[in-house]
């Protein structure tokens, strides 16, 4: 006997209700798309008047450069690097996706890994962090812009 025969209308109602609930849960679980103009980020330093890279010299022998802002699907990413003696000594994300709790969670997980990779590689040739592909791509783009401006 077939599972959805008319002799068992209650089974049909239960299956239809379960399918409706599953569909609703899946729709509500989708992350809404945030446009880059709405996505929150840390403010850019006052010395960078536009989207181009800016440089400052905080200490003798070292140079701090902020890379271009890279627009990603989930928001902008911008990296500031410090170079001392021709070596990359620091790479910090100053603007990154943090519009909602999921963005903050991914950034908190991915940014330290990307920083470690950049310092170890001394270049923008770093691996993508699994689960944070767009942030990783934006980090790489901004990092390369900063390194180019710093002369590395």
Would you kindly provide a written description of the structure presented here, covering whatever features stand out?
- By secondary structure, the protein is α+β, with helices and mostly antiparallel strands.
- The protein folds into 2 domains: 30 residues; 97 residues, Alpha-Beta Complex (Sufe protein. Chain: A), CATH 3.90.1010.20.
- 39% of the residues lie in helices and 20% in strands.
- The chain contains 3 helices and 5 strands.
- Strands 1, 2, 3, 4 and 5 form a 5-stranded antiparallel sheet that branches.
- Helix 2 packs across helix 3.
- The protein is rod-shaped and about 85 Å long.
- The protein starts with 8 loop residues before the first helix and ends with a helix.
The CATH topology of the largest domain corresponds to Sufe protein. Chain: A
State the helix count: 3
Under the CATH scheme, the architecture of the largest domain is Alpha-Beta Complex
How would you sum up the major sheet?
Answer: 5 strands, antiparallel
Instruction: Work out the radius of gyration.
Output: 23 Å
Number of domains: 2
Q: What is the helix fraction of residues, given as a range?
A: 25-40%
Low-confidence stretches: 34-57
- Average the pLDDT over all residues and give the rounded result: 78
Class by SSE composition: alpha+beta
The run of helices and strands is HEEEEEHH
């Amino acid at each position: 006997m077939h599972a959805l025969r008319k002799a068992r209308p209650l089974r049909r109602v239960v299956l239809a209700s379960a399918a409706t609930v599953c569909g609703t849960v899946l729709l509500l679980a989708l992350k809404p798309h945030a446009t880059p103009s709405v996505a929150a980020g840390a403010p850019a330093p006052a010395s960078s008047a536009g989207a181009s890279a800016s440089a400052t010299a905080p200490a003798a022998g070292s140079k701090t450069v902020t890379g271009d802002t890279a627009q990603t699907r989930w928001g902008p990413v911008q990296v500031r690097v410090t170079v001392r003696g021709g070596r990359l000594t620091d790479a910090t994300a100053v603007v990154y996706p943090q519009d909602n709790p999921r963005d903050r969670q991914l950034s908190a997980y991915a940014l330290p890994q990307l920083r470690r990779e950049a310092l170890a590689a001394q270049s923008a040739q770093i691996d993508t962090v699994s689960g944070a592909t767009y942030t990783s791509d934006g980090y790489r783009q901004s990092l390369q812009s900063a390194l180019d401006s710093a002369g590395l």
